[in-house]
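Weekly structure sync, notes
Attendees: PL (lead), two postdocs, one rotation student
Agenda item 3: pending single-chain targets
PL asked that the sequence for the first pending target be pasted directly into the notes so everyone works from the same version. It is reproduced below exactly as submitted, 61 residues in total.
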Amino acid sequence: MELDGRAYHAAPEQWERDIGRDVELATLGWQTIRLSHARLTRDVPGCRRDVLAVLRSRTPR
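Predicted structure, written out during the meeting:
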């Protein structure tokens, strides 16, 4: 898990680095879920619900 937020993406190169890492992880079957700082601090139950929904959708039935 990584929490960095927009404050850590001051330069376009930083954002591009994260995008590249997302692509690399996707080739391994990992999915990046991006949640805003505002939601993470103000809507914890909603973030949890969203993450669990993604996990359920990716779990083999």
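Discussion points:
- Helices lie at 12-27, 37-42, 44-58.
- The chain has one domain: 6-58.
Action: rotation student to compare against the earlier draft before next sync.
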